[in-house]
Design goal:
Elements lengths: L9 E10 L2 E11 L4 E5 L6 H9 L6 E6 L12 E4 L11 H11 L4 H14 L15 H13 L5 E5 L7 H16 L3 E6 L2 H7 L2 E6 L2 E7 H5 L5 E6 L4 H5 L3 E7 L2 E6 L5 H10 L4 E6 L4 H12 L11
Parallel strand pairs: 3-7, 3-8, 5-6, 6-7
Antiparallel strand pairs: 1-2, 1-4, 8-9, 10-12, 10-13, 11-12
Helix pairs in contact: 2-3, 2-4
Length: about 325
């Protein structure tokens, strides 16, 4: 009997968008299902912001199909969504609690309930002492956390965050990651865009990678990391080492007794260790490298034949 799979909250099929004849999004398809934290990754200019705005109905695609909660995106779904845009939008001259309450009111909450919720959520996230401070007096990290609270104050089912970590120092990035984990722990669904792979590596099980407006990967973090050729470093004084190791590698270099290896597809460190033991190489060190999502992204971009650069104009 097939396991029941919940219908996706967000579904894109072959979505395209161009501006002034220049393609920004090229036939992108993916789904976000209930309870997932999805990392929407790629360098600046990859098309992430354009795609998220189309998913919200703020931009109309040139072609393709988008469904949000099973229907077309638009105002009907807004009360069920929390959106943190890359361009932060709280009024700088109002107090933090009023800014949160204003966004909550736009998403259907009564003003009195919205103010009460704003105070409660500021206290929950350790920001109770800034509720009466004006937005313009807050640090960037504080203001960003206030805006995230504003996006979730009406308790949306689905949270869309566009570059939420942009411009934050490491301490505030960690605090924001903790907030996202707490929100997800309450069963909410989240997709966030970022060009910093480490955030997705720490937060997500599923990722979607974009480059030059094209989807180049859609799957779990472990599946993405599995695409990276295995690398390892070993140390031996045995002069036969290069002849023993070369048949196992696509790249091999050494500096004295230290050898850096990139293994052929399908090979693992155990195969190198077995070869070393078979030839009685005296190993002084043996350390497999753990690849990160950055390495996976570079590998997948190269495999897809997509040229990517961080110096592009943002799409």
């Amino acid at each position: 009997m097939l396991e029941n799979i919940p219908a996706p909250i967000l579904s894109l099929k072959h979505v395209r968008k161009s501006f002034g004849g220049k393609p920004a999004v090229r036939g992108v398809s993916f789904e976000v299902r209930p309870g997932e934290i999805v990392g929407f990754l790629g360098p600046n200019g990859a098309g992430k912001t354009t795609t998220l705005r189309m998913a919200l109905g703020l931009i109309v695609p040139d072609s393709g199909e988008i469904k949000l909660f099973g229907g077309p995106p638009g105002p009907a779904a807004f009360g069920r969504i929390g959106f943190l845009p890359e361009e932060r939008g709280l009024y700088r001259k109002i107090r933090a609690r009023d800014g949160i309450a204003h966004i909550a009111s736009l998403n259907g909450m009564k003003r009195k309930a919205a103010l009460k919720t704003a105070d409660a959520m500021l206290a929950r996230y350790g920001l109770g002492d800034i509720g009466h401070k004006k937005i313009k007096t807050l640090s960037k990290g504080m203001a960003q956390k206030v805006q995230l609270i504003a996006a979730i104050a009406h308790d949306p089912e689905f949270l869309i965050l566009d570059e939420p970590f942009s411009g934050l120092d490491p301490v505030n990035q960690k605090l924001l990651e903790d907030m996202i984990r707490e929100i997800a722990g309450r069963g909410r669904t989240i997709i966030f865009s970022t060009h910093v792979m480490e955030h997705a590596e720490r937060l997500c099980e599923k990722i979607v990678l974009l480059s030059k407006g094209q989807k180049i990967f859609d799957g779990t973090v472990s599946e993405a990391l599995a695409q990276v050729p295995c690398r390892l470093k070993l140390e031996t004084d045995d002069k036969r080492a290069q002849d023993v190791l070369a048949p196992l590698c696509t790249a091999l270099r050494h500096d004295g007794p230290v050898y850096d290896l990139v293994l052929k597809p399908g090979l693992a460190p155990k195969h190198v260790l077995a070869a070393a033991l078979d030839h009685k190489l005296a190993l002084k060190g043996f350390a497999p490298a753990n690849p990160g999502l950055h390495e996976a992204f570079v590998t997948l971009v190269g495999r897809a034949g997509v040229v990517s650069t961080d110096r592009e104009t943002k799409a």
